[in-house]
Please model this.
Amino acid sequence: MVVILVAITLTLLVLADWLLRRNNEAGGEVVAAQLPDAKTIQLVEPLCAGGFHVQPEMSYHLGHAWALEDGPSRARVGIDEFAAKLVGEADHIDLPQPGDRLVQGGPAWVLHHGDRHAAMLSPVTGEVVAVNPLINEHKVSLSKAPYTQGWLLSVRVQDFHRDQNNLLHGDLPLKWMELSSAQLRSKLKSGVALSFRNGEKSAESICDMVDEAQWNDVVHEFLLADAKH
Model:
């Protein structure tokens, strides 16, 4: 009798695990990839601020990169929707490789869109341990899933919470995103049709709406780095 009960229990546990994994895969909201020691994190619905989505779980660098604790001494990093739509769908991203070291606020990766390029800054300090293989294989749209399947790097960090002290989190990202949106619309109002308002979706590729001089200014002001040619 005991053997039968054990067998039934094991069967139920296997079934429950299978159902949970299937639901997670169908939802497409699990940030963690199959990396050693990575946590499986179910994200809540993103919030909208100034026409851009903000994922509440993330902590944000002022250069529009995000970081999320992703296991013991590990952080997942990527770009927010503001940066993704600013640059447009990336043709290619120059990413650091496993073993490379990042410094918070230092150069991290370069986004390429046509003949426009933009460097971005790292939100954390640490060693790159994994790169999302889907990105440059174009198996995921960075502009459509910047917080989920569109993550860029997994980084081994010494102290995530120390890095987080220099990032925006809690209620601050929503206010900051609204301000960034207002500043962008004010900066580009001359000759550029950015008609979105708070609660509406932003344009998909702002990069294509501006000339070279405006692009350089936008990258410098909002991504805190230089446009590359």
Notes: Residues 175 and 182 are 11 Å apart (CA to CA).
